């Protein structure tokens, strides 16, 4: 019987040489259309047809970033790919390739690594066809760790920066708000045992009950192809919403020297969740007024000239309650 | 007083926001000549003048890969850069840029991260001028972890693969053999306390006594610029010697469908150390017979037509002793 992510092969990494592990992984990984030279030499070679390439990197670590009781190996590979693809898409680029470094305890069943590879492949095939894994690295560690670097092709267009929004632009979003945070909240509330330890059976039951929220957290589906679509439609600024709409809108506003006024009605019923939820991985973009928004984008508000000010229906949100600056990272201070 | 790698700033990562940490790191990092867009957006943009780029990735983890009692933060940044630059150079490419993901415990003093940044910078400036850090990621973890992805420019040349060696070619090396392994052996023998735990004071004393061997292990100086030089001189095959000469020569031989006959005299007095030592990070290359070897390369032997056979002065080494296949990874079986 062939090992699949559902029936992880029992042999551990300690039972196999690095070469044997790679021989099990490579056939599962998607090739990249941009690949001129793939795995097996000291480095890979990729094509950059317009003489430029987009690069982003991100690391996921067991414990702080995921729990094996909640995430399947397939989920981990999928999420590691999806979050990096989203950063590439947020530049208006088409993702072309990934390199993936994995560190794992020697006791890790090879089926876990195979499941991660399957998740990487399925995510690329679903969200960025033609994008593949062109290289990687395998190391030993105590905590399962995935470091992904993703590449993209601007296809001759300029990158869509955070800094290009202009007063009067429409603020629009592709993707959902607050769902991933809701999934995480549900997991921490309902998928832990009496001692607060993540529990696989409870997580499976929760996932059956709240499939959308839990999947948004464990295996998100960011609107990757909307990045290039936004660029083609003339987006003036764009970013990946990873730390919550309020924080990320703040980043875009500060980088552009503008403000943003959100329409409360566009943010849904749970305004705190929409503004505060993390790991949405939607694309927040601004477009010149009157732009026919590309499919998948919906208007959330408008760009104002009140630099750095985030408003709701023209007013600060709450009665001294919500502070758009609270939780902002220092880079925008 | 400005914090330096010698006097690590005491504030911990837990005391600072991610943005504040980045604000401390970025000014220390070298810019890259190839950088079209640097850190601060969702992704960086790099130039690829000849429409291609070289990519390699590698992860270093506290415990399996380094010990903080032996390696200074500066050493860690240096080595993480050096080993990745070496893989780029082994393709015959000129290194252009790095992205660096760092995961560290929240209790890590910011000075440690600053020291790593200084090491990355100093290594790039010393070994690959013009190469810089264009992006990264910062996460929390229990074990300090560095994941580096490095990029290179082939400058219009074809990549030098492992598979191009031809019978009659000269086998040559830039760099040293066995010194890094000797350094590691010294550290494990003389820089541990009575319980076998790595000890910083003993390591410092050892480094004063054996500076070359210990530095070869903790902060190697691979001959990065010899990679493009070898390509220009017509190298038919090349790789980075990372797992020991015997293993890596075997990889090159198998990939090329050739054998290698080493001149025993060229390998120095300690033949086992020369053949077996890991982490040399020299460049092993083959050149057409009669090639004027580029500066820094010395001949070690010749390529034969006995596919997969590694010989010493025309004979298998030792009396049934050294098996060139022992320790090879599965990828070449």
TrEMBL record, chains A, B:
InterPro entries: PurM-like_C_dom, PurM-like_C_sf, PurM-like_N, PurM-like_N_sf, ThiL-like. SUPFAM superfamilies: PurM C-terminal domain-like (SSF56042), PurM N-terminal domain-like (SSF55326). This is Thiamine-monophosphate kinase. NCBIfam families: thiL (TIGR01379). HAMAP family: TMP_kinase. Reaction mechanism of ThiL seems to utilize a direct, inline transfer of the gamma-phosphate of ATP to TMP rather than a phosphorylated enzyme intermediate. The gene is thiL. It comes from the Bacteria. Gene3D superfamilies: PurM-like C-terminal domain, PurM-like, N-terminal domain. Residues 166-271 form the PurM-like C-terminal domain. Mg(2+) 4 binds at residues 42, 56, 87.
